[in-house]
Amino acid sequence: MAPRRISGFVVLASIGSLLMSCSSESKTTTTINVEDPATTVPADATSDTTVSPDSATPDTVAPVEFPMVRGSRYCELLFLRATEAGIQATVYGTQGLSYCPQADWDAIDTAPLAGEMGALFVIRNGPRVWLVDAVQKNDVEASERRIFGELEMNRLATVDITDPSNVGRPYTWQEVDRRTVFTFDAGSTEFFLTDADGNRYVMQAFSQQVDPSMSEESLTGLGDRLTLPEGWTYSVETIDEDLVIETMVTPARVLQDEFMNSYSWIPSR
What we know:
By secondary structure, the protein is mostly beta strands. The protein has helices at residues 102-107, 110-117; strands spanning 14-17, 73-83, 86-93, 121-130, 134-136, 146-148, 151-161, 174-176, 181-184, 189-194, 200-207, 233-238, 243-246, 252-256, 262-265. Strands 2, 3, 4, 6, 7, 8, 10, 11, 12, 14 and 15 form an eleven-stranded antiparallel β-sheet that branches. It has a three-stranded antiparallel β-sheet with strand order 5-9-13, with no helix packed on it.
């Protein structure tokens, strides 16, 4: 396996999008999200509101309170440390625990957090919004959950950064050991990058860090705003069958555009 590296927010994608490369070996685990027809996200899931699971009955599985599905918002903190091998980043995120209320996110002071966690510095990654219709990940440990300010976060990954020169470089893919299954539903409108060699990437999450007004609706015109490498294209397509990106065993490949929107590589069939 090639060394794991990062680009901008992608200490994994995202992580985020980014994201989520904790090992599940010999650990008590909890499921952040599973594909469950009873699990839904309200239209305002990107706001400060919450989802109530009180509609569950004894004959149904209670939905995840903050499911990681299309339209759900999340934020992450990346704690960077120096190691003998280079730089190591530990990632904590709100995925599955809240939709990252803006007031709580704005109130976090990263300077003292770096000292408390023994890090050189802390990178804020968010807010970001999922474009995946279902995210399956079963190896997050509740025992490693932390509260930063008013935000509760899961520890999602520890990633070795072997090539710091790629940090922040758009349109450069990085390998991410995130151990997830992403599903984009048939009939949904998706946003793709195609490189000069024909490799395809689907947007997994959009970012509101560079452009706070970024929304799913605005993505239809994003191509006119991108400065793409020679031979690359951006397209908006309605898919006619489920698009499943399974990276439980093999690493994902994730890249970003200049607005920090993150895309997953679609392996050739």
